[in-house]
């Protein structure tokens, strides 16, 4: 067996391991050559070079074909992993190249449209095109984790696993009640009136942790509401206008007939974060995705909090 190659020697380990796998699985140099689209001498020379580089014999050449040695059997699973990972790496690069600078932003039913638009606008300042995906919070987290989405803008708190969290952004929220229900306009939390109404709210599945936090906040101020579901944030106000429910709405909710909007204390603020995958934090040309989105979200939240109270 030849000695291990010195530091100055360069070998294409991925290609040589692929040759090793082909011979080990085909048990014949000629069949391995056909599988790899090359010649038998090339396969043989490649295996000799790999064995020389590693300093171990991987295959015994017999009249009946190639037989994997004990050392070869030990290294075979590692060779498969190396070749598979290289193939996946190449596929991911091809997918990115095919996408160009197109990025996907996820937003749940509870993410205000103004925030989604801010995230998209920030991304468009640096990338060619942006798409928007909607879904429940936990589903969007999974899609960021598996690479389907580049970033998601979700309520906080929101379990995010190993995803990288952006800055927390806060939006004031208002209490929406049926017009004429609240007698004392100075009351910050009209408990007596609210206890007579249901709470119109988006489904808990949209963001379980944030949903539970809202219920806890209402419980702390002495309200234990019955809940009625609305498909999205935009659907809660019509239920309030019907006279049987109240709602906690974001600062962008418009005044509509039959609904009165009252300010809420800061502890009721709506909180949001951008979530990105730890290995996909930058665009292809190096722009930090989280920073881009955070700047857009901060701009919108700042504009809302700086607006003069009518």
UniProtKB/TrEMBL annotation:
A single GO molecular function term of this UniProt record: DNA-binding transcription factor activity
Claim: Transferase is one of the keywords in the record: no
Domain HTH lysR-type: from-to ranges: 12-69
Alphabetic keyword roster: DNA-binding, Transcription, Transcription regulation
DNA-binding as UniProt keyword: yes
GO cellular component, one term: protein-DNA complex
Stored SUPFAM superfamilies: Periplasmic binding protein-like II, Winged helix' DNA-binding domain
PANTHER family per the UniProt record, alphabetical: HTH-TYPE TRANSCRIPTIONAL REGULATOR CYNR, TRANSCRIPTIONAL DUAL REGULATOR HCAR-RELATED
Family note: Belongs to the LysR transcriptional regulatory family.
Protein name (Swiss-Prot/TrEMBL): Unannotated protein
Lineage, uppermost ranks: unclassified sequences, metagenomes, ecological metagenomes
